[in-house]
Amino acid sequence: MKPNKYMxxxxxxxxxxxxxxxxxxxxGRGLGASGAIKRVVVTSVVEVAPQHSANTPFxxxxxxxxxxxxLKDWLVWEVxxxxxxxxxxxxISNRVGIKLxxxxxxxxxxxxxxxxxxxxxxxxxxxxxxxxTSGAALSGMAVMSFGGIxxxxxxxxxxxxxxxxxxxxxxx
Length: 172
Description:
Blueprint: H1 9-27, H2 34-48, H3 50-55, H4 57-65, H5 74-92, H6 108-128, H7 133-142, H8 146-170
Helix pairs in contact: 2-4, 2-5, 7-8
């Protein structure tokens, strides 16, 4: 079955803006994803290595700041909803399947290793910068935060820079 076309990116951006405004109106805060991952990691460390978490000041204080547990936060449910919603979107659009996107000059293993390293670096950067693309940049810009604007410039600037450096891997 032939997959459906992607949504117009301008319409998708407009709809994302409406979702962001609705989120700020309903919850009092913007969107975010890296915060949910941090909550899952902290909860996992507390459950798997309680002695280590008791001796690690960050994990100990983070866990104590969330008395019901770090997982009892709307960010965790937001990310679960994104995963479920994207799966249904893929089903509706006939795009569900396992596929590795890569350029002609890169092997599968190199592509996977690069994706893992890139994801880890972005996750580290999001924690050092106190937010990811959605939390710090998108939500920050929605409330005219100077830090949000700087974050968005840094994310897109570094993305364009790295794309220039690695473009030969993706082009024929």
